[in-house]
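Dear colleagues,

As part of the handover before I leave the project, I'm documenting each prediction I ran so the next person doesn't have to rerun anything. This entry is a single chain, and its sequence is reproduced below.
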Amino acid sequence: VLCYEILAGICLINDGHEKVLHAITESRKILGERTRFQRLIDDIYQNYVNERETERVRTTAMSLVNALLSSGPAE
């Protein structure tokens, strides 16, 4: 959860969006995941110890998604 919060915050600074996407891409390679956002998707769909923790992880993960979408280059 803390990692998602930090990454979402970095998206808000200059060049942060690009750096966060680069970091997510590099971690995918290191962890051997199929897609760049596999860990994020897995965390959103996983059920944790209790409902409160599950909602906390999902909310934080979606905050990162929102930060990535709202801070990226306009098309």
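Residues 51-71 form the longest helix (21 residues). The radius of gyration is 13 Å.

All the best with the project,
I.
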